[in-house]
Amino acid sequence: MLRKWPLLFIIIPLIELYLIIKVGSYIGALWTVIIVVMTAIIGINLLRMQGLSTLKRAQQNMEQGVMPAMEMLEGLALAVGGALLITPGFLTDALGFICLIPATRRGMIRAFMARASVQTFGSQPPPGQPPFTNQSSGRSPNESGDGRTIEGEFHRKDDK
Questions:
Q1: Which of 38, 76, 108, 115 has the lowest CB atom count within 10 Å?
Q2: Half-sphere exposure of 124 toward its Cβ, with a 13 Å CA cutoff?
Q3: CB-count exposure of residue 85 (10 Å: 0-12, 13-18, 19+)
Q4: With contact defined as beta carbons under 8 Å apart, do 81 and 99 qualify?
Q5: pTM for the whole thing?
Q6: Average pLDDT of the chain to the nearest whole number
């Protein structure tokens, strides 16, 4: 998959150029430029509104003690959508607007998460290293010198 990314930087501008020339031949160069500029302006305003809404939802979740995972992913999708809308062209504008519409954005995120595989940090140790150990001592991160793991909670009492 990573090998295909450089091709996108060649193919997408060519598609954009083709679409701009085709649209320009139908409605004229001036109207084509006006449409491209207007979609960027509209997109930036939508991005600002959606971004503020997503930030507000994330703050509400954090106040309730809930991890705002969906809002964080939505923020990433909004950033990608904003970058696509600033890029001149019709294809990138369409993809950018898809990232800005809440229903399609959340659907895209859910589809991506369903296909994504989760790999935890340290799940593949270096060759010759046993999994989940400290490289310097050979012990697991939670293991004390006597082989016991102590779990618990603590509360700080301020002396005033």
A1: 115
A2: 2
A3: buried
A4: yes
A5: 0.64
A6: 80
Decide: 104 and 98 in contact? Cβ < 8 Å.
yes
| Nearest Cα residue to 11 out of 92, 83, 96, 81 | 92
Which amino acid is it at 92?
T
Residue 99 CA to residue 85 CA, distance in Å, equals 10
Domain residue ranges of the chain, discontinuous segments joined by +: 2-114
Report which of residues 151 and 67 the model is more confident about. Answer: 67
DSSP H or E stretch at residue 5: helix 5-27
Cα 93 to Cα 30: distance, rounded to the nearest angstrom: 18
Alpha helices in 64-119 (DSSP H): 69-86, 90-100, 102-115
Query: 70-90, pLDDT tens digit by residue?
Result: 888 898 999 899 889 888 889
Write out pLDDT tens, residues 11-34.
Answer: 988 999 999 999 999 999 999 999
Q: Which residue has the tokens 């006597």?
A: 146
Amino acid identity for residue 39 in this structure: T
